[in-house]
Amino acid sequence: MDQILLQILNGLDKGSAYALIALGLTLIFGTLGVVNFAHGALFMIGAFCAVTLQKILSLSTITIDPTKTDFLGNPAKIKTPYVEAWFGPEMGAAIIDWSVPLAILFSIPIMILIGFIMERGLIKHFYSRPHADQILVTFGLAIVLQEIIKQNFGANPIPTPAPDVFRGSFDFGMLLGFDPNAIIYPYWRIIYFVFSMIVISGVFAFLRFTTFGMVVRAGMADRETVGLLGINIDKRFTIMFGIAAAVAGMAGVMYAPINSPNYHMGMDFLVLSFVVVVVGGMGSLPGAVLAGFLLGILESFASMNEIKQFLPGIDQIIIYLTAIVILLVRPRGLMGKRGVMEE
Questions:
Q1: Domain edges within the chain
Q2: Which whole-number Å values give the CA distances from 257 to 103, 151, 252, 274, in the listed order?
Q3: pTM for the whole thing?
Q4: Which member of 47, 53, 149, 245 lies 3.0 to 4.6 Å from 103 by CB, making a disulfide possible if both were Cys?
Q5: Degrees (nearest 5) of the Cα angle 159, 165, 168?
Q6: Burial 304-331 (b: 16+ CB within 10 A, else e)
Q7: pLDDT per residue over 130-140, tens digit each?
Q8: Using CA atoms, how far apart are residues 111 and 199, in angstroms rounded to an integer?
Protein backbone atom coordinates (compact mmCIF):
# COMPACT_ATOMS: atom_id res chain seq x y z
CA MET A 1 0.00 0.00 0.00
CA ASP A 2 2.81 2.43 0.76
CA GLN A 3 4.31 1.83 -2.70
CA ILE A 4 0.92 2.42 -4.31
CA LEU A 5 0.47 5.73 -2.48
CA LEU A 6 4.01 6.78 -3.37
CA GLN A 7 3.41 6.07 -7.06
CA ILE A 8 0.15 8.02 -6.95
CA LEU A 9 2.05 10.99 -5.51
CA ASN A 10 4.70 10.66 -8.23
CA GLY A 11 1.94 10.47 -10.81
CA LEU A 12 0.29 13.63 -9.54
CA ASP A 13 3.66 15.36 -9.80
CA LYS A 14 4.16 14.34 -13.43
CA GLY A 15 0.50 14.82 -14.21
CA SER A 16 0.66 18.40 -12.94
CA ALA A 17 3.27 19.30 -15.56
CA TYR A 18 1.40 17.44 -18.30
CA ALA A 19 -1.90 19.07 -17.34
CA LEU A 20 -0.48 22.60 -17.26
CA ILE A 21 1.18 22.29 -20.67
CA ALA A 22 -1.83 20.51 -22.16
CA LEU A 23 -4.11 23.21 -20.74
CA GLY A 24 -2.19 25.88 -22.63
CA LEU A 25 -2.15 23.77 -25.80
CA THR A 26 -5.91 23.30 -25.58
CA LEU A 27 -6.54 26.99 -24.90
CA ILE A 28 -4.69 27.90 -28.09
CA PHE A 29 -6.35 25.19 -30.17
CA GLY A 30 -9.80 25.93 -28.78
CA THR A 31 -9.59 29.67 -29.42
CA LEU A 32 -7.42 30.00 -32.52
CA GLY A 33 -7.75 26.54 -34.03
CA VAL A 34 -3.95 26.29 -34.19
CA VAL A 35 -2.02 23.12 -33.36
CA ASN A 36 0.90 24.80 -31.60
CA PHE A 37 3.95 22.53 -31.49
CA ALA A 38 6.01 25.42 -30.09
CA HIS A 39 4.17 25.28 -26.77
CA GLY A 40 6.76 23.00 -25.18
CA ALA A 41 9.37 25.65 -26.01
CA LEU A 42 7.35 28.13 -23.94
CA PHE A 43 7.59 25.72 -21.00
CA MET A 44 11.37 25.59 -21.54
CA ILE A 45 11.65 29.39 -21.72
CA GLY A 46 9.77 29.65 -18.44
CA ALA A 47 12.31 27.35 -16.78
CA PHE A 48 15.13 29.52 -18.10
CA CYS A 49 13.38 32.61 -16.75
CA ALA A 50 14.06 31.08 -13.32
CA VAL A 51 17.70 30.48 -14.33
CA THR A 52 18.05 34.05 -15.61
CA LEU A 53 16.59 35.67 -12.50
CA GLN A 54 18.84 33.55 -10.29
CA LYS A 55 21.88 34.74 -12.27
CA ILE A 56 20.73 38.36 -12.08
CA LEU A 57 20.21 38.19 -8.33
CA SER A 58 23.63 36.55 -7.91
CA LEU A 59 25.50 39.37 -9.65
CA SER A 60 28.19 40.51 -7.22
CA THR A 61 30.50 43.38 -6.54
CA ILE A 62 34.12 42.54 -5.64
CA THR A 63 35.90 44.32 -2.80
CA ILE A 64 39.39 43.87 -1.35
CA ASP A 65 39.63 42.93 2.32
CA PRO A 66 43.20 43.76 3.47
CA THR A 67 42.64 41.99 6.78
CA LYS A 68 42.33 38.60 5.01
CA THR A 69 44.59 36.83 2.54
CA ASP A 70 44.09 34.07 0.00
CA PHE A 71 46.25 30.94 -0.29
CA LEU A 72 48.93 32.96 -2.14
CA GLY A 73 49.12 35.56 0.59
CA ASN A 74 47.42 38.30 -1.47
CA PRO A 75 44.62 40.45 -0.03
CA ALA A 76 41.39 38.48 -0.25
CA LYS A 77 38.73 39.40 -2.80
CA ILE A 78 35.26 39.38 -1.29
CA LYS A 79 32.23 38.88 -3.52
CA THR A 80 29.08 40.55 -2.25
CA PRO A 81 25.83 40.17 -4.25
CA TYR A 82 24.33 43.54 -5.12
CA VAL A 83 21.01 42.62 -3.49
CA GLU A 84 22.84 42.01 -0.19
CA ALA A 85 24.59 45.36 -0.52
CA TRP A 86 21.29 47.11 -1.22
CA PHE A 87 18.94 45.31 1.19
CA GLY A 88 21.33 43.99 3.82
CA PRO A 89 22.89 40.53 4.22
CA GLU A 90 19.81 38.76 5.62
CA MET A 91 17.22 40.24 3.27
CA GLY A 92 19.55 39.92 0.27
CA ALA A 93 20.28 36.27 1.02
CA ALA A 94 16.53 35.60 1.40
CA ILE A 95 15.79 37.21 -1.98
CA ILE A 96 18.43 35.04 -3.68
CA ASP A 97 17.15 31.94 -1.88
CA TRP A 98 13.58 32.62 -3.07
CA SER A 99 14.61 33.35 -6.66
CA VAL A 100 12.44 30.56 -8.11
CA PRO A 101 9.11 31.73 -6.62
CA LEU A 102 10.06 35.32 -7.47
CA ALA A 103 10.72 34.20 -11.04
CA ILE A 104 6.97 33.63 -11.44
CA LEU A 105 6.44 37.40 -11.31
CA PHE A 106 9.50 37.87 -13.51
CA SER A 107 8.26 35.40 -16.13
CA ILE A 108 4.63 36.51 -16.56
CA PRO A 109 5.23 39.73 -18.55
CA ILE A 110 8.05 38.07 -20.51
CA MET A 111 5.92 35.09 -21.49
CA ILE A 112 2.91 37.23 -22.39
CA LEU A 113 5.13 39.39 -24.61
CA ILE A 114 6.64 36.30 -26.27
CA GLY A 115 3.14 34.92 -26.80
CA PHE A 116 1.94 38.14 -28.44
CA ILE A 117 4.99 38.25 -30.72
CA MET A 118 4.55 34.59 -31.74
CA GLU A 119 0.85 34.99 -32.46
CA ARG A 120 0.96 38.35 -34.23
CA GLY A 121 4.27 37.81 -35.99
CA LEU A 122 3.90 34.26 -37.28
CA ILE A 123 0.99 32.10 -36.22
CA LYS A 124 -1.81 34.45 -37.35
CA HIS A 125 -0.72 33.83 -40.95
CA PHE A 126 -1.57 30.12 -40.58
CA TYR A 127 -5.10 30.31 -39.16
CA SER A 128 -6.72 29.25 -42.43
CA ARG A 129 -3.96 26.83 -43.41
CA PRO A 130 -4.20 23.04 -42.91
CA HIS A 131 -3.22 21.65 -39.51
CA ALA A 132 -0.21 19.95 -41.11
CA ASP A 133 1.16 23.37 -42.08
CA GLN A 134 0.58 24.67 -38.55
CA ILE A 135 2.42 21.72 -37.06
CA LEU A 136 5.39 22.16 -39.38
CA VAL A 137 5.81 25.90 -38.82
CA THR A 138 5.37 25.75 -35.02
CA PHE A 139 7.66 22.73 -34.76
CA GLY A 140 10.27 24.67 -36.71
CA LEU A 141 9.79 27.63 -34.37
CA ALA A 142 10.31 25.32 -31.39
CA ILE A 143 13.62 24.14 -32.83
CA VAL A 144 14.74 27.73 -33.38
CA LEU A 145 13.87 28.70 -29.78
CA GLN A 146 15.63 25.56 -28.51
CA GLU A 147 18.82 26.44 -30.38
CA ILE A 148 18.70 30.04 -29.10
CA ILE A 149 18.55 28.74 -25.53
CA LYS A 150 21.37 26.28 -26.24
CA GLN A 151 23.53 29.05 -27.70
CA ASN A 152 23.04 31.38 -24.73
CA PHE A 153 22.91 28.95 -21.81
CA GLY A 154 24.88 25.96 -23.05
CA ALA A 155 23.94 22.33 -23.53
CA ASN A 156 24.31 21.18 -19.91
CA PRO A 157 21.48 21.23 -17.34
CA ILE A 158 21.65 24.19 -14.96
CA PRO A 159 20.79 23.38 -11.32
CA THR A 160 18.13 25.77 -10.01
CA PRO A 161 17.47 24.96 -6.35
CA ALA A 162 14.24 25.55 -4.50
CA PRO A 163 14.22 27.75 -1.38
CA ASP A 164 16.01 26.15 1.58
CA VAL A 165 12.79 25.72 3.54
CA PHE A 166 11.38 23.45 0.79
CA ARG A 167 14.46 21.31 0.09
CA GLY A 168 13.59 18.58 2.56
CA SER A 169 11.04 15.79 2.39
CA PHE A 170 7.71 15.21 4.08
CA ASP A 171 6.89 11.92 5.81
CA PHE A 172 3.47 11.05 4.39
CA GLY A 173 3.65 7.65 6.06
CA MET A 174 3.49 9.13 9.56
CA LEU A 175 0.51 11.27 8.52
CA LEU A 176 -1.41 8.24 7.22
CA GLY A 177 -0.45 5.85 10.01
CA PHE A 178 2.38 3.97 8.26
CA ASP A 179 5.79 3.28 9.71
CA PRO A 180 8.24 6.20 9.77
CA ASN A 181 10.05 6.76 6.45
CA ALA A 182 7.63 4.46 4.60
CA ILE A 183 6.41 7.24 2.29
CA ILE A 184 8.89 10.10 1.94
CA TYR A 185 8.07 12.80 -0.59
CA PRO A 186 9.94 16.04 -1.43
CA TYR A 187 8.29 19.25 -0.26
CA TRP A 188 8.82 21.02 -3.57
CA ARG A 189 6.92 18.37 -5.52
CA ILE A 190 4.00 18.91 -3.17
CA ILE A 191 4.31 22.65 -3.75
CA TYR A 192 4.31 22.05 -7.50
CA PHE A 193 1.11 20.01 -7.34
CA VAL A 194 -0.64 22.65 -5.21
CA PHE A 195 0.61 25.39 -7.53
CA SER A 196 -0.69 23.56 -10.60
CA MET A 197 -4.12 23.13 -9.03
CA ILE A 198 -4.24 26.85 -8.21
CA VAL A 199 -3.30 27.81 -11.79
CA ILE A 200 -5.74 25.32 -13.35
CA SER A 201 -8.55 26.49 -11.06
CA GLY A 202 -7.68 30.11 -11.83
CA VAL A 203 -7.89 29.52 -15.61
CA PHE A 204 -11.24 27.74 -15.32
CA ALA A 205 -12.62 30.44 -12.99
CA PHE A 206 -11.42 33.16 -15.37
CA LEU A 207 -13.16 31.53 -18.33
CA ARG A 208 -16.36 30.80 -16.41
CA PHE A 209 -16.96 33.79 -14.14
CA THR A 210 -15.52 36.81 -15.97
CA THR A 211 -17.16 38.65 -18.87
CA PHE A 212 -13.97 38.34 -20.88
CA GLY A 213 -13.88 34.59 -20.31
CA MET A 214 -17.54 34.15 -21.20
CA VAL A 215 -17.01 35.97 -24.50
CA VAL A 216 -13.97 33.78 -25.22
CA ARG A 217 -15.97 30.61 -24.52
CA ALA A 218 -18.74 31.87 -26.77
CA GLY A 219 -16.17 32.59 -29.46
CA MET A 220 -14.77 29.08 -29.11
CA ALA A 221 -18.27 27.70 -29.69
CA ASP A 222 -19.36 30.07 -32.50
CA ARG A 223 -16.78 32.58 -33.64
CA GLU A 224 -18.84 34.09 -36.48
CA THR A 225 -21.88 34.87 -34.34
CA VAL A 226 -19.78 36.59 -31.68
CA GLY A 227 -18.10 38.66 -34.39
CA LEU A 228 -21.51 39.72 -35.75
CA LEU A 229 -22.32 41.15 -32.32
CA GLY A 230 -19.56 43.72 -32.83
CA ILE A 231 -17.05 42.06 -30.51
CA ASN A 232 -13.41 41.98 -31.62
CA ILE A 233 -13.01 38.29 -30.88
CA ASP A 234 -9.62 38.11 -32.64
CA LYS A 235 -8.14 40.55 -30.13
CA ARG A 236 -9.47 38.49 -27.24
CA PHE A 237 -8.07 35.31 -28.75
CA THR A 238 -4.66 36.99 -29.06
CA ILE A 239 -4.84 37.83 -25.35
CA MET A 240 -5.71 34.19 -24.64
CA PHE A 241 -2.58 33.14 -26.55
CA GLY A 242 -0.57 35.36 -24.23
CA ILE A 243 -2.31 33.86 -21.20
CA ALA A 244 -1.59 30.33 -22.46
CA ALA A 245 2.07 31.28 -22.90
CA ALA A 246 2.14 32.65 -19.34
CA VAL A 247 0.64 29.41 -17.98
CA ALA A 248 3.32 27.36 -19.77
CA GLY A 249 6.02 29.73 -18.53
CA MET A 250 4.90 29.54 -14.90
CA ALA A 251 4.77 25.75 -15.17
CA GLY A 252 8.37 25.80 -16.40
CA VAL A 253 9.51 28.16 -13.64
CA MET A 254 8.17 25.98 -10.88
CA TYR A 255 9.46 22.79 -12.52
CA ALA A 256 13.04 24.09 -12.63
CA PRO A 257 14.00 22.76 -9.14
CA ILE A 258 12.52 19.34 -10.01
CA ASN A 259 14.32 18.89 -13.32
CA SER A 260 17.33 21.14 -13.93
CA PRO A 261 16.55 23.30 -17.00
CA ASN A 262 18.15 22.18 -20.26
CA TYR A 263 17.62 23.19 -23.85
CA HIS A 264 15.66 20.07 -24.87
CA MET A 265 13.22 19.89 -21.95
CA GLY A 266 10.53 21.58 -24.03
CA MET A 267 10.64 18.84 -26.66
CA ASP A 268 10.67 16.17 -23.95
CA PHE A 269 7.36 17.42 -22.57
CA LEU A 270 5.76 18.58 -25.81
CA VAL A 271 5.20 15.19 -27.43
CA LEU A 272 3.80 13.70 -24.23
CA SER A 273 1.60 16.73 -23.60
CA PHE A 274 0.25 16.64 -27.13
CA VAL A 275 -0.68 12.98 -26.57
CA VAL A 276 -2.42 14.15 -23.39
CA VAL A 277 -4.43 16.70 -25.39
CA VAL A 278 -5.49 14.09 -27.95
CA VAL A 279 -6.46 11.59 -25.24
CA GLY A 280 -8.43 14.22 -23.35
CA GLY A 281 -10.13 15.40 -26.52
CA MET A 282 -8.96 18.18 -28.84
CA GLY A 283 -10.40 21.50 -27.63
CA SER A 284 -11.62 20.15 -24.28
CA LEU A 285 -10.06 21.94 -21.30
CA PRO A 286 -11.43 19.53 -18.65
CA GLY A 287 -10.34 16.63 -20.85
CA ALA A 288 -6.77 17.95 -21.04
CA VAL A 289 -6.52 18.23 -17.25
CA LEU A 290 -8.13 14.83 -16.63
CA ALA A 291 -5.91 13.09 -19.18
CA GLY A 292 -2.81 14.83 -17.83
CA PHE A 293 -3.26 13.43 -14.32
CA LEU A 294 -4.47 10.05 -15.58
CA LEU A 295 -1.47 9.48 -17.84
CA GLY A 296 0.92 10.87 -15.24
CA ILE A 297 -0.28 8.29 -12.70
CA LEU A 298 -0.13 5.45 -15.24
CA GLU A 299 3.42 6.41 -16.21
CA SER A 300 4.42 6.48 -12.55
CA PHE A 301 3.06 2.97 -11.90
CA ALA A 302 4.71 1.69 -15.08
CA SER A 303 8.09 2.87 -13.76
CA MET A 304 7.93 0.54 -10.73
CA ASN A 305 10.70 -2.07 -10.74
CA GLU A 306 8.19 -4.86 -10.09
CA ILE A 307 6.34 -4.02 -13.29
CA LYS A 308 9.44 -3.36 -15.42
CA GLN A 309 10.80 -6.81 -14.51
CA PHE A 310 7.83 -8.42 -16.25
CA LEU A 311 7.44 -5.80 -19.00
CA PRO A 312 10.83 -4.18 -19.72
CA GLY A 313 10.52 -0.73 -21.21
CA ILE A 314 6.82 -0.42 -20.43
CA ASP A 315 7.43 2.91 -18.69
CA GLN A 316 8.63 4.37 -22.00
CA ILE A 317 5.52 3.40 -23.98
CA ILE A 318 2.67 3.20 -21.47
CA ILE A 319 1.31 6.64 -22.39
CA TYR A 320 1.23 5.79 -26.09
CA LEU A 321 -0.36 2.38 -25.47
CA THR A 322 -3.02 4.01 -23.32
CA ALA A 323 -3.65 6.61 -26.02
CA ILE A 324 -4.10 3.87 -28.63
CA VAL A 325 -6.61 2.00 -26.48
CA ILE A 326 -8.61 5.10 -25.57
CA LEU A 327 -8.72 6.40 -29.14
CA LEU A 328 -9.83 2.97 -30.42
CA VAL A 329 -12.73 3.04 -27.96
CA ARG A 330 -13.40 6.80 -28.09
CA PRO A 331 -11.94 8.31 -31.28
CA ARG A 332 -12.63 11.85 -30.05
CA GLY A 333 -10.83 11.28 -26.75
CA LEU A 334 -12.23 11.19 -23.25
CA MET A 335 -14.13 14.47 -23.48
CA GLY A 336 -13.74 15.48 -27.14
CA LYS A 337 -16.57 17.08 -29.11
CA ARG A 338 -18.05 16.11 -32.44
CA GLY A 339 -16.57 17.92 -35.42
CA VAL A 340 -13.23 18.92 -33.88
CA MET A 341 -10.41 18.03 -36.32
CA GLU A 342 -12.81 15.74 -38.21
CA GLU A 343 -12.97 17.77 -41.43
A1: 2-61+75-329
A2: 12, 22, 10, 23
A3: 0.87
A4: 53
A5: 70
A6: beeeeeeeeebbeebbeebbeebbeeee
A7: 878 888 888 88
A8: 15
